[in-house]
Amino acid sequence: MVNRRIAEILRSGQPDESPQIQGWVRTKRESKGFAFIEVNDGSSLANLQVVINQDLPDYEAILKKLNTGAAVEVTGVLVASLGKGQRIELKAEAVKVYGEADPETYPLQKKRHSFEFLRTIGHLRSRTNSLGAVFRVRNACSAAIHQFFQERGFLWVHTPIITASDCEGAGELFSVTSLDLKNVPRTDNQAVDYTQDFFGKPTYLTVSGQLEAEVMAMAFSNVYTFGPTFRAENSNTSRHLAEFWMVEPEMAFCDLEGDMDLAEAFLKYIFKFVLETCPEDMEFFNQRIDNSVLATAENIINNQFERLTYTDAIALLEKADVKFEYPVSWGLDLQSEHERYLAEQLFKKPAIVTDYPAQIKAFYMRLNDDEKTVRAMDILAPKIGEIVGGSQREERLEVLERRVLAQGLNPEELWWYLDLRRYGTVPHAGFGLGFERLVQFMTGMANIRDVIPFPRTPQSAEF
Amino acid sequence: MVNRRIAEILRSGQPDESPQIQGWVRTKRESKGFAFIEVNDGSSLANLQVVINQDLPDYEAILKKLNTGAAVEVTGVLVASLGKGQRIELKAEAVKVYGEADPETYPLQKKRHSFEFLRTIGHLRSRTNSLGAVFRVRNACSAAIHQFFQERGFLWVHTPIITASDCEGAGELFSVTSLDLKNVPRTDNQAVDYTQDFFGKPTYLTVSGQLEAEVMAMAFSNVYTFGPTFRAENSNTSRHLAEFWMVEPEMAFCDLEGDMDLAEAFLKYIFKFVLETCPEDMEFFNQRIDNSVLATAENIINNQFERLTYTDAIALLEKADVKFEYPVSWGLDLQSEHERYLAEQLFKKPAIVTDYPAQIKAFYMRLNDDEKTVRAMDILAPKIGEIVGGSQREERLEVLERRVLAQGLNPEELWWYLDLRRYGTVPHAGFGLGFERLVQFMTGMANIRDVIPFPRTPQSAEF
Predict the structure, then answer these.
(1) Interface ipTM
(2) Which residues, numbered 351 to 410 in chain B, qualify as contacts with chain A under a Cβ-Cβ cut-off of 8 Å?
(3) Distances in Å between the alpha carbon of B180 and those of A172, A191, A195, B185, B270?
(4) Selection from A263, A287, A297, A289 nearest residue A442 by Cα
(5) Given CB atoms, is A258 within the 8 Å cutoff of chain B?
């Protein structure tokens, strides 16, 4: 018999149909002569209510096994539900218990568990309502990202995870090595003998696929990456992970205007997609986690994002009737409190700030004619601050070489990146989106460790 | 003016339309009073032919810049082409050159380059016909994979890249560390002091997401991973990469039959998808790279895969009228020559071999009642050998614990994996597909380094 998913039955199952379902017991309620069990198979937040009558052979013995967490297969007949809370329920004709879950030791009993506790059982926490909803929404975000770019003819390109270049200077790097750490080989002058390492030189985990994505954009015009990136930054906060996924589109023949247009369309598309495909999960987050997530999603979808320059943003912040913790002054980077003031209080919608001072931004961003600012853009969102960071890239060889040197980088290591400007260079632009920040933003989850299945953070690489 | 992609113009552009295109010059042919340039924007293998008449202002000066590799923007009018080889061409009304490419130094001149040479210019090689076709097909394979699973309600789950468990024993591991290799800290008894490392213990790059995918399948029923995996194996062959992408679906309430059904449907789907979306690129591979790729694709799509046990396969190999290099005997693993004999010569189509001897397979595969074989399956394909490896997983706690110990692994490190059998265990199964092997198989490319944008191999981590 073909198994049906519970989400599909709840949506479109009709009385008198005879489905078979398989899933895990969430709760059991015993009554006189019958029992209700709620079964979940992960396809939806809602459970299917199964009614088991005492006529069922071995009723007592089976019931004893149907504790929270037990795995079951039920065949039966759908009937309209008389109870509140569900349209339809399954009258069991046969119940098979695959695996039990001892109520004395199974940690997920029917009660609220703290997210801190759930992190200690990362191998079981996806079986809860909240983490289940998070990972369904995470999947929907992923699907939306691929669909958005594939519809527009962008190629998904896999940029390398292991890299020999540390030239982006974007943060602290993890080393990757096949050397024996107990006995690192040395050269005559006591340096590490990297000729004995797997790649013959020092290698690291990537912090961004952008430079390689630019390579691919110079062949395919429009590409995107969607893969893991890494920071060995010792930040034990609710917003930092050592391993996180990033989305980085890169477009040839594109300037900062086109980049902003794409990023805005992209965010609207993802929020719309998730509201449409996961309405029940989003409703759950709005009720249980953060009662502003639905309003925030609607705000993103329905408003044209404000666009202003960094210089104008500084002027607005200087005029603001708010005490900021960090100073505001032209040349200083915007802090989270400033970003949130602009998006939440001033504009009450996402804002795109452009043309930041060159000295606080990366070497590859295109220098404006004022020689002081670069064609960078950050999208600031209510509640979370920066959600997207992008720029038009410097496509002029001589300007790029100047910027590389000014930031103390080695042009020789960047020979191939400079070659892209030597041969068939074009205006091009792209942006980066921290995927877990997006899921956090979408769901209202307070801690980023709860929106990735197996978080990697300082002193923690469990499961 | 909105830019149009060349693939779309070649497909559906009509005479008298006035598009703007942007791309890179592939070739230039000068004639009396006019010139042809072939422009490619990466959206297709075919170029758009642009005709430039000498009436164009600055004709001579512009023509001098239009060398192979130059970046151009052309606006003009589409006209039916009188020449052979194209339906339509673009009569230029304005030509803008963004970036030139000096013919004296630009390495990609109009001639055949060896794939070895192209690997030394990994930042430019995607601009060639062959690598361009490879990466379009690679993208199509990726898109097909997501579409296949999303249509069937599977969640894409991101399993960790950095892992503290080396318990799968699947090969040599890369270490990930934030320690200074020049000065590795020591404990009092001269061991490495991992308490000072980022995660507080030894960590590695993952070799497979399967164990974590099983965690997720026990909550969502059907999931898949699609991400990078790593082997620090010193194999300098045309089939090995140190960094490669893997696809690993995992299904709860699924046995080996269901696993084989899914894998077969999956392969057929991807081949069909790529033939439909990249016909021109596939035709190119068939003509230029390997004249069997189209027949192989049709073979996969149209034939029911042969299914036989390992024991039967050994009997067939023992009877075969072929001299094998490696011995054939029950208990030994199948070598590539044996796999290819079965698929290519005997069955002339893909074959699924099941129920391998337990001692040559991983600890997590379900033990058969004979206690000698496990519910493993490998799909062997003509031309390439093993393309998919999977199994039904051991869901019985006591059997799994026995197998863990028998293979010399530490049950304490696998506590969470064993917990999946302790609480709500179910029959489940999954498989792994090496993504680059698939792309190699699809395209006929001889060397795996030419189907991933930036290959990582022993002594090589360029770009």
Answers:
(1) 0.97
(2) 395
(3) 12, 12, 17, 8, 45
(4) A297
(5) no
